[in-house]
Specification:
This protein has 18 helices and 16 strands. By secondary structure, it is an alpha/beta fold. The chain has an eight-stranded parallel β-barrel, surrounded by eight helices. It has a three-stranded antiparallel β-sheet with strand order 11-12-13, with helices on one face. Strands 14-15-16 form a three-stranded antiparallel β-sheet. The longest helix is centred in the C-terminal third of the chain and has 19 residues.
Length: 525
C-alpha cells in the first residue's frame, strides 16, 4: 500500500481567498501548528511575489518543524531569461527551503495565449527550471497547471510537459485541476492513464468550483496519486481549494490510507478551529467531520437510537477526529434528547421528568423561544431539577428608562431589586442602552455575593422579530452570549416586550455563569 503524502498550501493558495489577509506572525503560528499536526509538506508562500512572503521564509528558517518540509512556491523561468537571470527563481533559492514548487503551463491554449510562447519554448522553460533547482540541491515539485483541461484538449502535449519535468529530475509531478470543473470519474481515469506512462510520483491539486474538490482528490488517489494538495477548511480563490479537513479523515478512516497517527488525527477539529481563528473567519458549523454540527442530533427518533448505539446515526466515532456527539433540543425533540443532555451533566432523569422538561420546552418554543442556539438555557433547566439546587438569586422587580438629555444625548438607566441569600439588593446603573444598563445593575447587585461574575462579559446580543406583521406588538426573541472562565454560552428569552425578553435571557445567563464557573449556592446533586 503506497503512502499518501499531505501537502498543505493554506499559507499560499488559501490566502488567495477573499477576506483573508495574514500577517507574517499569523503565517508562522499556522505553519508550526500544521507541522505539529503531521503534515509532510507546508507551502509557505511565493517569495518572488511580495516582501511579506520573503520575510516569512527568513523567520520560518528558525522554526522547529519536525519532519515537515517547508516549500517555497514560484513559477518556471520566463521565456527570454536564463534561470540565473530570472528574479523569481533567485527568490526561490534565497528562501532557503528544502523544497521548491514551481508551476508551469501544461495547456497548449495557455502557452500560446497567456505566455505568448511556442510549445517548445514552454518545454524548455520547464526543463531548465527543474534542472536548475535540482542542481542547487532542492527537492522539486512541478505543478502542471490546468492539467486535466490540457489533457482533454491535447493529450500528447500535456504529457510532454510532465516528461520534460521528469527528465530534468522533478521529484513530484502534480496534476492541477485549476479551474475546478472536472468530475471524479474524469479525474480518476486521466490519472490512471498518466500513471501508466510516467513513473515519477504523482500528486493532485484540486479546486472546488464544481463542489468536487474533495471527491476529485480522493479519485486521484484511487487513480495513482500519492501526494494530495489542499488547504485547511478549504480556503482558497473563488469557492476554494480541496478541503484537507475532509480529505484527511476520508483517506485514513474510509480508504485505509494512514496519513497521520491516530493521536494527530484527534487534533483535526482543534486544528480547523485554530486556523479559522487566526484567519479571523467564522468556522463553518456544518463542515464534515470537524463542524460543531457534524455529530449533532435533533430528531427524537435519532437521539433515542444513538443512546442505544451511537453508530445507528453516525458514520464514525467523532472522537477519532477530536469532535463530539451532541443532542440538539427543539420542538422536534423526544425524551431522549433531554435525557442525553441530562446524562452529560451527571443527572439520571426518569421518563416522567424528561417528558415534563420536554413539554415545557415545546410550550416555550411555541411562544417564540428557540433552544438550538441556546444550549445554556436547556442546561440550566436541567440543573434546576437537582433536589439540592438553590436558585442563587430571585428577581423582585426592575425599572428601566431611556431618555435623551441635551447635555449627554441618549441615556439609559436601570434599577434592579433582587433577593440574594435572604437579603434584598437594590442597585441602579447607567448604560449605553437599556440592556447594557440592566446587565450592569444586575451584576453590581450580585457581585458582592458572587465575585466570579466580575470576570464574565457580554459579547453578543441578537434580536429577532418573529411575527413582523403584528408591527410594534410583534413577538421578539433575544439571544444573549456571555464569555468567562474559558467558556462561551448563550441563553434565550422571548416576549412581546424587548426589555422583558432581554431580562429573561440576561438573568438566565448570569445564573448559568454561577453554575458553570462554580459560584452557585447549590451543592452537587
Amino acid at each position: 500500500m503506497s503512502q499518501v503524502f499531505l501537502y498543505d498550501t493554506t499559507l499560499r493558495d488559501g490566502t488567495q481567498r477573499e477576506d483573508i489577509s495574514l500577517s507574517v506572525d499569523d503565517k508562522l503560528v499556522i505553519a508550526k501548528r500544521l507541522a505539529d499536526f503531521g503534515f509532510h509538506y507546508i507551502e509557505g508562500g511565493w517569495p518572488g511575489s511580495n516582501p511579506k512572503d520573503a520575510e516569512f521564509f527568513v523567520r520560518a528558517a528558525k522554526l522547529s518543524l519536525g519532519n515537515a518540509k517547508l516549500a517555497a512556491f514560484g513559477r518556471t523561468r520566463q521565456k527570454h531569461l536564463s534561470c540565473e537571470q530570472d528574479s523569481n527563481l533567485q527568490a526561490l533559492l534565497d528562501a532557503g527551503t528544502p523544497v521548491v514548487t514551481m508551476v508551469g503551463k501544461s495547456s497548449e491554449y495557455h502557452v500560446k495565449l497567456v505566455l505568448a510562447a511556442t510549445l517548445e519554448e514552454n518545454l524548455a522553460m520547464i526543463r531548465d527550471s527543474v534542472a536548475y533547482m535540482k542542481a542547487q540541491g532542492r527537492e522539486v515539485v512541478f505543478d502542471a497547471e490546468h492539467f486535466f483541461d490540457a489533457f482533454i484538449a491535447n493529450r500528447d502535449y500535456a504529457l510532454a510537459t510532465l516528461r520534460a519535468a521528469a527528465e530534468a529530475g522533478a521529484d513530484w509531478l502534480v496534476l492541477c485541476e485549476t479551474n475546478g470543473g472536472k468530475l471524479p470519474w474524469e479525474v480518476e481515469e486521466i490519472v490512471r492513464e498518466v500513471a501508466a506512462q510516467i513513473k515519477t510520483p504523482l500528486g493532485v491539486h484540486c479546486h472546488n468550483d464544481s463542489g468536487c474538490g474533495v471527491s476529485n482528490s480522493l479519485a486521484a488517489v484511487r487513480g495513482g496519486c500519492t501526494q494530495v494538495q489542499g488547504t485547511i477548511n478549504g480556503y482558497g480563490e473563488r469557492v476554494g481549494n480541496a478541503n484537507l479537513t475532509t480529505i484527511i479523515p476520508n483517506l485514513q478512516l474510509k480508504m485505509n490510507k494512514p496519513v497521520v497517527t491516530p493521536a494527530q488525527l484527534r487534533e483535526l477539529t482543534s486544528l480547523a478551529h485554530y486556523v479559522a481563528e487566526v484567519v479571523n473567519l467564522k468556522h463553518y458549523n456544518h463542515a464534515p467531520y470537524i463542524g460543531h454540527s457534524a455529530f449533532a442530533h435533533k430528531g427524537g427518533i435519532h437521539v433515542a437510537a444513538i443512546m442505544k448505539a451511537s453508530d445507528t446515526y453516525q458514520h464514525i466515532d467523532p472522537t477519532l477526529v477530536g469532535n463530539e456527539m451532541r443532542s440538539v433540543v427543539s420542538e422536534l425533540s423526544g425524551r431522549g434528547n433531554i435525557q442525553f443532555h441530562a446524562q452529560a451533566l451527571g443527572l439520571n432523569l426518569n421518563n416522567e421528568d424528561a417528558q415534563r422538561v420536554l413539554n415545557h420546552i415545546k410550550h416555550l418554543e411555541h411562544d417564540g423561544f428557540t433552544f438550538e442556539a441556546a444550549e445554556a438555557s436547556v442546561e440550566l433547566m436541567l440543573h434546576r431539577l437537582r433536589p439540592s439546587y438553590v436558585q442563587p438569586f430571585e428577581l423582585v422587580d426592575y425599572f428601566v428608562i431611556t431618555e435623551r438629555r441635551q447635555s449627554r444625548g441618549l441615556l439609559s438607566e436601570a434599577t434592579v431589586k433582587v433577593k440574594v441569600g435572604g437579603e434584598v439588593k437594590f442597585v441602579a446603573a447607567e448604560g449605553n442602552g437599556p440592556v447594557n444598563a440592566l446587565s450592569t445593575a444586575l451584576r453590581s447587585a450580585l457581585s458582592a455575593a458572587y465575585p466570579v461574575l466580575k470576570t464574565v462579559r457580554l459579547i453578543d446580543y441578537k434580536v429577532r422579530i418573529l411575527d413582523s406583521g403584528n408591527g410594534t406588538s410583534a413577538q421578539i426573541r433575544v439571544l444573549i452570549t456571555f464569555q468567562g472562565g474559558g467558556h462561551v454560552w448563550t441563553t434565550v428569552g422571548a416576549s412581546t416586550n424587548i426589555i422583558d425578553a432581554s431580562w429573561r435571557a440576561l438573568s438566565d445567563s448570569l445564573e448559568y455563569a454561577l453554575v458553570k464557573l462554580g459560584g452557585e449556592t447549590a451543592t452537587a446533586g
